[in-house]
Task: structure prediction
Amino acid sequence: MPANREMTMRQMRQVLRLHASGTSDRAIGRIVGAARSTVRDAIQRAKAAGLIWPLPEDLSDTALEEKLFARAGARIGTRRRPEPDWAHLVQELKRPGVSIAILHEEYLADHPDGYGYSRFCDLFRSFERRLTPTMRQHHVAGDKVFVDYSGKKLPIVDPLTGEIRHAEIFVAVLGASNLTYAEATWTQTLPDWIEAHVRMFRFHGGVTKLVVPDNLKSGVHKASFYDPEINRSYGKMAAHYEVGILPARPRRPKDKAKVESGVRFAQFYILGRLRHRTFFSLQEANAAIAEAVTRMNSVPMRRLGVSRRQVFETIEKPALAPLPAQDYVFAHWQFARVGLDYHIEVEGFFYSVPFGLIGQQVEVRVTQRTIEAFHKGGRVAAHARRFAGRAHGTQAEHMPSSHRRYAAWSPERFRSWAAVIGPHTEGLIAAILSARRHPEQGFRTCIGVLQHMRGIPKERVEAVAAKALAIRALTYKSIVSLLDTYHERAPAPAADTPVITHPNVRGPGYFH
Result:
């Protein structure tokens, strides 16, 4: 049908009626408001189509237009030349290094009388436009995976309290094959976000060149068209897998059309099918989601006639980079200042670093099992993470040589020495250690007190210890003052009175 039409079908009917009544072409033109040549053309088209007035009552305007303005030659919707399997070509174009020019050359090799390059491209793009919006984007195999969280949440019931907690749905869609991965996480926070990526890579069995997230706060600190700022932990995960992070550009919906389409499809396919089920744990929900994802990836895609899994196995999987030997272990980073005791504090526990870093700022990598300290990019300390027990974790190699002897001291050792003297002395030493925030801070006081007790009769030491406990005199200076005062005022002991000669605690010079 011609692109421009000067008369409507209502006018056409009027032309045919007036012509049948004997009205001249010029008069008909004045009546319907058209040129005489246009009227004459309409009458000739009616004769060529075998139409006479009155027209059949059931002849619609659409049918009349087709009869009057149908093209001669090939039937509408048919091609005059042989055509390739366009769905197959769409898949082939996703292979690395394949272009439309190469596909056209192969087409002409099979069909020498086929379409020229320009017409071939037009027909190929026309076929792509009939696919889903996701499929219309051209993505090379192994190039990108699109990740995001679904806006819909999955309710999970606490079996003990009946409380309903809503889990987030993480969705990832591979660019070339549309293979979809989904799982439920409790939150969208950084640990859940990164660990979902780790499981996604494991599901794919390989790594794409790029990960394209939406500008989620867990992954992108600052959204920017030119230079988006990636979260450090997210960047470390990317470095572990040697994958690039390319956030979708702000206010560019086409950048994330793939994952948004995948998210909608996942919501329809997963949440729609699970809406009547009640889940009592995250593990149970993820098992059901895995079944739905497997089924979704196995269903043939409309028009292409093959499933996501088939396209992935044949085209995309061979293009993925291999996984590293070990999964990435999530860690969060923080800064810490090294204290005078060459320890850093992490969540209430203290971990040693080399004493030369006293007063310096270090970066701390915290995982579920380890604490690592870095200075100027190099790792300077590594500890097993503490959740209970002693607050200090000290490694001997971090101590200066004059302090390494402290490693042999412990609260139990001091109490055992004091127990040799008597119960009051043991109680005093225990009180000194417990009065400090950290027992190690009381070691010097205990050494000085025990050293000062040497040569004094046991009964006098026990009496002083009892008095010190009673008045809570727990500093070295106050205890020594009590010992000296009591020793000076007390009568001289008999020659055979036992005095303290044990333990053999060395003086302060031992430590310097």
User: Anything to note?
Assistant: The two ends are 104 Å apart (CA to CA). The longest strand covers residues 164-174.
